[in-house]
Amino acid sequence: MGQLILIRHGQTEWSLSGRYAGRTDVPLTEAGEAAAKALAPRLAGRPLAGVFSSPLSRAVRTAELAGLTGVRPDPDLIEWDYGGYEGLTAEQIRRARPGWDLWRDGVVPGDTDHPGERLEQVAARTDAVLGRIRPLLSGGDVAVVAHGHLGRVLAVRWLGLDASAARLLGHPHPGTLGFLAAEDGQPCISAWNVP
Questions:
Q1: pLDDT score for 39
Q2: From 173's CA, which of 32, 40, 69, 149 has a CA 20 to 30 Å away?
Q3: For residue 59, what is the enclosing H or E element?
Q4: What pTM does this model have?
Q5: Buried b / exposed e along 156-182 (16+ C-beta atoms within 10 A)
């Protein structure tokens, strides 16, 4: 059985400043492009049974620069819709809402482009992605280029845990890899936040 290679897109201006970029299509910075290119040697030569990406340009561009081909954009891989918190930092949100925690408290509704999404909705999307990917793993590794919070939810759902357990994983740095595998027939995380 192959591994699910989870790739977080490279750095953007918003990831650098800690702003929540859910549905906003923020481009990679020069450093983000360099980090994406640096992934290419690590991914070269792997027999990939499939490559999927969030349709947002920061993920699609990361896949391209990392040398991945045959990339299939998947709308279920788009980042959490942060609603009214889109573009804000956690510090800004906590000034208005002391003690706020994304995993416990979620988001507030935003405008029509950013209506907001509950954690359960994000989990349902990652479950759908995993349902499409699992059959492919018998043919080799599958690469997924996505986002930080969505990637954490995908990883814990891979493990069969409640989506709220994603708070227990460190936030993957931009341009890093995670490897989801199986050991003795049980799902595991074999590596996380690998540059």
A1: 97
A2: 69
A3: helix 57-65
A4: 0.97
A5: bbbeeeebebbeebeebebbbbbbbbe
What single-letter amino acid sits at 185?
G
Instruction: Provide the token pair at 184.
Output: 């003795």
Parts of the chain with a pLDDT under 50: none
Active-site residues, by number, are: 9, 79
Nearest to 4 by CA among 128, 155, 126, 148: 155
In this structure, are residues 109 and 159 in contact, taking their beta carbons and an 8 Å threshold?
Answer: no
- pLDDT, position 104: 97
- Chain Cα centroid distance, residue 183: 23
Distance from C-alpha of 173 to C-alpha of 152, rounded to nearest angstrom: 11
Q: 134-148: per-residue pLDDT in tens?
A: 999 999 999 999 999
The mean pLDDT of the chain is 97
- For 49, residues 6+ apart whose C-beta sits below 8 A from its C-beta are 2, 136, 137, 138, 139, 140, 141, 142
In angstroms, the Cα distances linking 11 to 15, 58, 102, 168, 181 are 6, 8, 21, 22, 26
